[in-house]
Amino acid sequence: MTEDLPLALSLGDPAGVGPELICEAWVRRVRSGLPPFFVAGGVSLLRAAAEQRGLDVPVHPVSDAAEAAALFDKALPVLGELDGPYRPGKPDAGGAKLALASLRQATALVTGKAAGALVTGPIAKSRLAEVGFDFPGQTEFVAHACGVPATDAVMLLAGPQLRTVPLTVHVALAEVPTLLSVELICRRTRIVARGIQRDFGIAHPRIAIAALNPHAGEHGRMGDEEQRIIGPAIETLRAEGIEVSGPWPADTLFAPRARETYDVAIAMYHDQALVPLKALDFDEGVNMTLGLPIVRTSPDHGTAFGIAGTGTAHPGATVAAIRLAGQAAARRAR
User: Fold this and answer.
1) Domains of the chain: which residue ranges?
2) How far apart are CA 317 and CA 303, in angstroms?
């Protein structure tokens, strides 16, 4: 990996807000300090998205990633012949196939070291499943492409005010206590510690671990997972030299003064992590996958079919995802 490789962006579902926000990010490239990037497919689609949003974006096809880097200051580079119609707010099978093809191409370019990092646009999982996508989400697809077990691909949500990791993700809340184990907490916390060191440049990351139960269980009165599982995992990690603390009651862990005491918080389940992140940093939240040999980020929002093409979608998360991917790739290259 070299620091000057451009980033590869996948389109996301073309009926969603992804294409217009990519165009908006290119317009903001200088003031937002974005590294060079290109899009995997969608020349005419991106032109239509830019026009619909009222943006002056010259979209230019390129034949390789190196050409994209040289062109970036003057035009939005698009690599490859993938394309399709722009029908914002009207998802269909053709759009899902284009989204999947763009994801595959962008991922292959990054794993093949032609691009410096991967930024994935928002997709509709149900739509992709209808066209043969066999993965729960893009994270698992990218992990598989990298030869990494899906269990070792850890979701980090990052914003200006908070970094947090959900230990369990897309499972029913009732299943969470049955999935927690000392091994799971230790394994994923080790991945988080290495990821924060490598991708954020924090040599000794401070990691706060949330409790599962209200008031951290109150010594077993409201559940004993803190005593049986979370506490012993923390002791194991401390013995390895990892700076961890907890288990902390989640109702105070994300307060302003508490956030000053750690670099990343590990939550026990999806909403315990995502509710504070979206409350604090909704317009700049980034989904980053730790544990991969490549850098992968994505804006932490969905396709937003309901507002696609209206010009009201906020570009902050897309801009932040591109910026963070570039920063992390540069750190790894150095």
Assistant:
1) 7-149+292-333, 154-276
2) 12
d(CA 49, CA 42): 10
Protein fold of 154-276: Isopropylmalate Dehydrogenase (3.40.718)
| CA dist 91 → 5, 50, 233 (Å) | 33, 18, 44
Give the Cα separation of 144 and 15 in Å (integer).
26
Question: What pTM was estimated for this model as a whole?
Answer: 0.95
Q: What is the pLDDT of residues 163-174, one digit of tens each?
A: 999 999 989 999
What is d(CA 200, CA 217) in angstroms, rounded to the nearest whole number? 33
**Interatomic CA distance for residues 29 and 302, integer angstroms:** 22
| Residues 6+ away with beta carbon under 8 Å from 30 | none
Closest alpha carbon to 127 in 119, 140, 137: 137
Domain 7-149+292-333, CATH? 3.40.718.10
Q: Would you say 186 and 196 are in contact if contact means Cβ atoms under 8 Å apart?
A: no
